[in-house]
Amino acid sequence: MILNYDMNIFRNTALLLAVFVSATLSAQTDIQDLRSNYNIGDVVTITGIVTSGADLGSVRYIQDASAGIALYPGSDWTDWAAEPNPGDEVMITGEISEYNGLLEVGPNLTQVDVLSSGNPLPDAQVVTPNQLNESLEGEIVVIESTTFDAGGQTIESNTTYTFASGGEEGNIYVRSSNSLVGTILNGCEMNLMGIVSQFSFDGYGGYQLLPRGAADMQSTSGICLSSEVVQLNLTTTSFDLTWSTDVEGSSSIG
After folding, report:
1. Which of 57, 217, 225, 231 is most buried (CB neighbours < 10 A)?
2. How far is CA 94 from the centre of its chain?
């Protein structure tokens, strides 16, 4: 018996198989497509602009024109040639995971390439506290006319602070690596900026804002507290209060 093989069929079949395997191993996509159409454990390749630095620990957030997402390398970026910094355009290949509700790429990463640096960050979207949700997770936002009840207190590490704006409330979270730790929480009205994140044991709710340093908490008022209010010289008839403000002034009465 004589068997005749068409080698073109074998070549085409092998090519199709290679394309299929490549697509299965890593799918090139934009971030919104990743968030909507891929599952935990899928391996994807995405490109975007880094929007956060070491203030948020080892996690980096990136955005493209469609959405944002967290990148988690593990404890640090030492396994890679460069540590991504704000303004870097990066191409990342890795496995989709979830940590307490937060969708991430990593820690199983296979590619971290910095394509360019010094790029402008995406514009912050103006939102309200009640709009901090899954649709904005990983993106830069700003909430206008914000105040903190804890204004004037020293910011502590790994601490949540509640803010209010327009009759709605939300939370910021300040981790130990943030340059805000040890500074005074602004006691005046501000435009509060940061990246929308999530921390929820059951995966529902728990949305919070992550400021990336003092530049994300700029006052829109004239004079603000820059130290805690301290009570001194307490007697049965009087006491003294001392504090500092961000501009020179006098607290004399009469």
Report:
1. 217
2. 18
Domain count, the chain: 2
234 within 8 A of 228, measured Cβ to Cβ: no
* Boundary-marking domain end, from 116, 151, 169: 116
Q: What residues are paired with 210 via a beta bridge?
A: 195
To 5 degrees, how large is the angle CA 16–CA 21–CA 26? Answer: 130
Query: Residues 55, 146: one domain?
Result: no
13: pLDDT strictly greater than 90: no
Residue 26 and residue 6: Cα distance in Å, rounded? Answer: 31
Q: What are phi and psi of 90, to 5 degrees?
A: -125, 150
Give phi and psi for 177, each to the nearest 5: -80, -5
Q: Which tokens belong to 201?
A: 């044991």
- Measured distance between the N- and C-terminal CA atoms of the chain, rounded to whole angstroms: 116
Residue 152: domain span: 125-219
DSSP string, 147-202: EETTTTSBPPTTEEEEEEETTEEEEEEE-TT-TTTTSBPP-S-EEEEEEEEE--TT
pLDDT in tens, 95-135: 999 999 999 999 999 999 999 999 999 999 999 999 999 99
Residue type, 11: R
Which CATH number fits the domain that encloses residue 51? 2.40.50.200
